[in-house]
Amino acid sequence: MNMPEIVGLFFKASLLLFFIFMVVLILTLAERKALARIQQRKGPNRVGFKGILQPFADALKLLTKEDILPASANKQIFWIAPLAVFLPGFLIWVTIPLAKEVVLANLDMGLFYITAISVLSVMGLLMAGWGSANKWAMIGGLRAAGQLISYEIPFIMAILAIGILAQSFNLKEIVDDQARWPFAIKQPLGLFIFLTAGLAELGRTPFDIHHAESEVVGGPFVEYSGAHWSVFYLAEYMNTFTIAVLTVLLFLGGWQSPALPFSGIVQTVASLSWFLIKTALVIWVIFWIRGTYPRLRIDQLMSFGWKILVPASFINIFLTASVLYYALPHWVITVVSLGFLGVTFYFIKKGSLAGHKQDTVTIINSSDIRAQLSNRAEV
Amino acid sequence: MSVVFFAIAAILVISGGIGVVAARNIVYAALSLLVAMVGTAGVFLIGLAEFLALVQLLIYGGAVVIVILFSLMLTRIQDFEFLKANRQWPIALIVAMSLLGLLGIPILIEDSTTTTMGSTNISELGLSLFSDWAIPFELASLVLLIALIGAVVVVRRDNGEDK
């Protein structure tokens, strides 16, 4: 490697960083607008035309805000934590292709690289929780670690099943393999597991117990403010985009599009826009879920992960591997996978695996209250 | 160029290793362990063993250190104030020195010829792991269990004093 190559690499990396910044800014606005639509509000509509400059205003506000360091916090760990969350998420982008030729480095073990790097971001959340010297942050950090470690298993298993199906860990080859049938059709169960576990890895609703405002205030982020908090925020939205992009690459056929009469650079742009449209749809589903579902309780979250998603992901791998080993036609995977998806939904609906039933509110009849009050008055 | 990368990786490994042993705060020690692990992954990467480097990150960085930290963060730091004054240091010294000898002697005896290696072929690797090396491979998966049990043991001793 010589000097111009290194300079070129730095240039590409900074271009990528800029692209991700832009995506994050757009996503924050898109999420607020989407949630507003779901809740019949207007959402941000003051800064710029219909509020399109709102994210810039927010970013400016966050960067100029005072950065507070709690007196008893562990200074080094407290300051390094945001970076430890952001950096693994960004390093994943080295190998994610956006179109056939638009990728920084197409690795043969791309998928494995992504799983290996993505697990490191738990460390940042733990460091933030511990370094803040705050009870809520500590509980939030430990919750994050417990949750991410649990949901990593189905997440990685779903990815492995895709690797088995495509016979490759190279993201480009995986997309090429989906030229006829996207893997979502072959592995509906895999798509369900991947998206659900992916949401949990992101810590987005309904799996956001580690920074649940009503339980642990803000979790690991509670003591952060200003620029350092915005790094966490940036990482969260970047990871949302990553999960959406991975869903499209692994299950929805990536940049594979209906035959378009273009060639050369126009072809690249067309397939890139096709890819981004698919990604936007997945992101919209993620926002939709956030606007629709309430937050899980921690015991529900753990039992859902270990009793439903983990067994389902093992079934998914076993099914894919055995169909390929015995050289059965691929539609067998589809049929059996759909069957197991139905079984999974049945168990979720029935709720029998989601731990013991626990009432959070006790309903007392008004007549009982009156009787009690009158008893007390008599005494 | 690779010399520069090796120097960076070596510094990470050595400083991380010293950190693990010298840090008085046990959480710092665990975090230093992570630094050492990342450095080791870097050394593997220079040796063109990309698969090994990624496994190193996934298992040691992602799982072992997190499980250790998870347990340690639930303990009180005061309990580990005299972490340095450990009565078992002669045993540790003997183990470390014999390991150093075990690894160092072959380097001194063998001619240090550089061999050129192609990049790892992941499908061949998978085939040989699951056919010729299936049992060692499965045994290696015990590593996480050992980390978990080790962390629980450290925490349990702390609880025993409380009672």
Q: Considering the protein shown, what is the CATH homologous superfamily of chain B?
A: NADH-ubiquinone/plastoquinone oxidoreductase chain 6, subunit NuoJ
Rg of chain A? 23 Å
Q: Which shape of chain B, going by the Cα principal axes?
A: globular
Number of domains of chain B: 1
Radius of gyration of chain B: 19 Å
Percent of sequence in beta strands of chain A: under 5%
> What is the CATH C-level name of chain B?
Mainly Alpha
Order of helices and strands of chain B: HHHHHHH
Biggest sheet descriptor of chain A: none
Molecular shape of chain A? globular
List how many beta strands of chain B DSSP finds. 0
Proportion of residues in helical segments of chain A? 55-70%
Structural class estimated from helices and strands of chain A: mainly alpha
Strand content of chain B: under 5%
The main β sheet of chain B shows up as: none
* Largest binding interface between chains: A-B, 27 and 24 residues
Quick structural overview:
Chain A is mostly helical.
What does it look like?
The complex is a heterodimer of chains A (379) and B (163). The longest helix of chain A has 36 residues, at 3-38. Chain A is built from 15 helices and no strands. Chain A has helices spanning 3-38, 54-64, 75-91, 110-118, 121-131, 135-166, 171-177, 183-186, 188-202, 213-216, 226-251, 264-292, 298-325, 331-350, 366-378. Chain B is mainly alpha-helical. Chain B has one domain: Four Helix Bundle (Hemerythrin (Met), subunit A) (Up-down Bundle). Chain B is 75% helix and 0% strand. Chain B starts with a helix and ends with a helix. The interface between A and B is medium-sized, with 27 and 24 residues.
List keywords for this structure.
heterodimer, A: 379 residues, mainly alpha, 2 domains, B: 163 residues, Four Helix Bundle (Hemerythrin (Met), subunit A), 7 helices, 75% helix, disordered C terminus
